[in-house]
Amino acid sequence: MRRRIVTFLKVLVFFAGVCSALVAAEAGAREAMRRSEVPVLRWHDFSSQLKVEQMASLTSGVDVVVVGTSMAQQDLVPSLITDESVSSYNAGLNGGVPVVMEPWLIEQVLPVLSPKTVVWGLSPLDLSATYGDATKNAYDQAFETRQGYLAEADRWVSQYSTLISSRAVLRDPAKIYGDEADATQAKLADAVSALGEFGERTVFDIELGVERQDEVTDRISPFQIDRDDLAAIARTVAALRNQNIEVVFVELPVPERFVSLMPAGDSDRALFSRAVDTLGQELEVEVLKASAAFENEDFVDFTHLSEEAAARFSSDIGTQLAGL
């Protein structure tokens, strides 16, 4: 009997020590994060993380949601595609191709914003088979979007423990106080400066260098329509319709300098445009296009419209939306 009591006391002391160590570690973790002020990335990039926070602040939801890649983010300005009587938000993502938009829209955007209409901006990048895998992988592996019981348990525990929620940063001091910490702060600052009041992208710096050109070329060479993206769009439209949400496609303009980078030039552009038209017909979704052509000078790089051109395009699409 005495031996059992002694054993029990030893076990009790052991667990008390473990608990004390955990409490001390938790306190240390919270103090370290408080002092460093390094943001912890829980989504696949800081732009999406900021949008989650921004959407949460729109407690009454919105009538119209814009989705798509950074092109849709920049080219479709919410305040200009709807009038003052219709609220709108741009939930597009950097690299937000359809296979990324599907889970983002259905699992993250709709439950928060409850829109009546989704305006989906589509460009050759959205349907290119050589673009989007990196973003999809990053999205699937991000803390907030990982799937499975372990991921759900991790998120639940992280609500109460800084030691767990910030472990990716805490395990490496350089991420708290060194160069990596500075780089993380810079990424967050860039994301903040690029985010408009209603989710639109506000990056209008001219970027026509060789590095940017090569980056775009890699995303469309060879240019083939990605069947996975087409299937993701079809599934998403069906899911939206099940919730009585209207869907409208918008074919986004691209400059001639972009077309010149496509392996087959105008033939590839026509291939993309036919794919969008066919998709619209098969899914019975209206496809809107620019009423007037845009020149190279209307773009700040190989894909994104300038501020003035984005305003013009948004107003044009807004007029067409109002006429539907």
Quick overview:
The chain has 324 residues and is an alpha/beta fold.
Descriptive notes:
- There is one protein chain.
- The chain is α/β, with parallel strands linked by helices.
- It has a single domain, classed as SGNH hydrolase (Rossmann fold), CATH 3.40.50.
- 58% of the residues lie in helices and 7% in strands.
- The chain has 17 helices and 5 strands.
- Strands 2-1-3-4-5 form a 5-stranded parallel beta sheet, sandwiched between helices.
- Helix 5 (98-113) runs parallel beside helix 14 (227-242).
- Residues 25-29 have low confidence and may be disordered.
Report helical residue fraction.
Answer: 55-70%
| The named CATH superfamily | SGNH hydrolase
Unreliable stretches, pLDDT < 50, 5 or more residues? 25-29
Distance between the termini: 84 Å
Class computed from helices, strands and strand pairing: alpha/beta
Largest sheet: 5 strands, parallel
Element order: H for helix, E for strand: HHEHHEHEHHHHHHHHHEHHEH
What Rg do the Cα atoms give? 24 Å
- Judging from the principal axes of the Cα atoms, what is the shape? globular
Would you tell me which CATH topology applies?
Rossmann fold
Q: Can you tell me the number of structural domains?
A: 1
Q: What is the CATH domain class?
A: Alpha Beta
Percent in strands: 5-15%
Query: What is the CATH architecture descriptor?
Result: 3-Layer(aba) Sandwich
What is the number of strand segments? 5
Number of helices: 17
> Which strand order does the major sheet show?
2-1-3-4-5
Mean pLDDT: 85
